[in-house]
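Data card: per-record layout.
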Amino acid sequence: MNDVASLREQILRLTREYSRQAHSGFRPAADPDRTPWQEGANIPYAGRVFTEDEVEAAVASTLDFWLTLGAEGEAFQRELAAFLGVRHSLLVNSGSSANLIAISALTSPKLPQAKRIRPGDEVITVAAGFPTTVAPIIQVGAVPVFIDADPITGNARCDQLEDAYEAGKTKAVMMAHALGNPFDIAATLAFCQKYDLWLVEDNCDALGCSYSMPRSLAESLGIKENSPGLDEGPDRVVRWTGTWGDISTQSFYPPHHLTMGEGGAVNIVSDAKLKVIAESFRDWGRDCWCPSGIDNTCNKRFGWQLGELPEGYDHKYTYSHLGFNVKPLDPQAAIGRVQLKRLPEFIEARKQNWETLRVGLATQEYSLEFALPTHATAWDPEQGFTWDGSGCRTDCSWFGFKIAVKAEAPFTRTELAQELDRNKIGNRMLFGGNLVRQPAFVQLRQDRPESMRVVGDLEHSDKIMNNTLFLGTYPGLTLDMLKYEVNAIVNYCKSFN
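The structure for this 497-residue chain is written out next.
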């Protein structure tokens, strides 16, 4: 072994040892080498979960010092697409950027004119959620049309989709799967199919969630295949969320289902031309599709005539879109590749952590209201969920454990949040609550009343804004931490008896 290779091996060996000693508190909850949690220490609602494998991957990639998106990025894109069963995945620097690229791609003049989103066209979305699901709609000149949310699932009230539709103006539906709970995909797909609309799934909180329906219903909606690794028998179709619409997005920020620090992805479900368009918007708006550092993939680099440029103008410097530069770094992708291998265990940990909290808090239903998966009608600690008559089912890899304080409770949501803070238990609102009440949207409505449209009174989004918070379900939560959370909430509720 030459000196450089030997030195690299030594660096990586020491890197692994350093990580084992310095970062043992970030290992998965079930890892025997994890530093035990001590009562009185913080319990974050979410965070990084990793071992020396991720640290070694990051350092090894950095030693190569390619830095910009390269071989690790290409591999991660292929591996993520293969896991989901989609045509392509494109890495970007955040979930917010992924949403911006996804909606921007649908504005491209390379799309059929009847389908292209143009300034003033409308995109249906839900009022309760995270702002960067909606902001990109406005940023591309379109008009978000807000429908209400269901306070139990946290998702859009899909019975309002028809009320939101306006012939000739509505071009797409763009909504998130709230806290890892899929929205009503069957109803949304049927609506989009009826009016030939795009469906953009914000899957940032829902990687590893699945949705299933009777095969006869799925085939009527143009869906025939299961996602890789999923099967519920010959009479049902089951797919990961993020694979039902035309395009979907992911976030790899530390609280999410896997992390690469900052980062995200745009998933092209089936239409290959959307990949070229989305990639163009991600990479400065250029027309060229050569990877970084590669020239003349098309074999006619100097053979194009586009726009009003002279014939033969370098294709690498030809721009068909007003794009961005939102690529992540290759060392981030190296981390993501290791995290993707952990995803199955992370998914199961989130499900189990939700179940532990739900069982532990089952006696507090007189004051607290808990989430149900979409299409579930009830939950029982012995039997689990009961389901509606649609034949559709959801299997949630929960991003969070949603709690609403009932109107008749002797305390408010804010008082419960303050009690959780006193006990060092991480908690969050359901993101922006009712987004139309946020200062930025209030100002936008004052400056340009035509910039958004609201369906109904959004009373349930207000209810979420006023009454709801969530706890963590991430794979770093140990059983002792979850039991502490349960006891703190139960004791607080009992203190009012």
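Known properties of this structure: The first strand starts at residue 88 and ends at 92. The chain has two domains: 71-317, 343-494.

See the next section for split statistics.
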